[in-house]
Amino acid sequence: MASSSMSSRRSTWTAQQNKLSERALARYDTETPNRWHNIAMAVGGKTAEDCKSHFQILLDDLYQIESGRVPFPNYMHSS
Questions:
Q1: Distance (Å, rounded) from C-alpha 17 to C-alpha 38?
Q2: pTM (two decimals)
């Protein structure tokens, strides 16, 4: 999870918007002109800046996880 300072940058994203964003990110790579505008149009209800900010937060979260700053949960194994 992102730090509390980042949580103020978060806007509400539905599961559907997250899925649409993931699909749009796969479709519109970094070489695509107007990438964030295209992604926002695909998501609906978000601006290009919303989409870019949301992506940056996800990257920050991923970095925190991969750097070991977020502990793995201790799941109980069923027998």
A1: 14
A2: 0.73
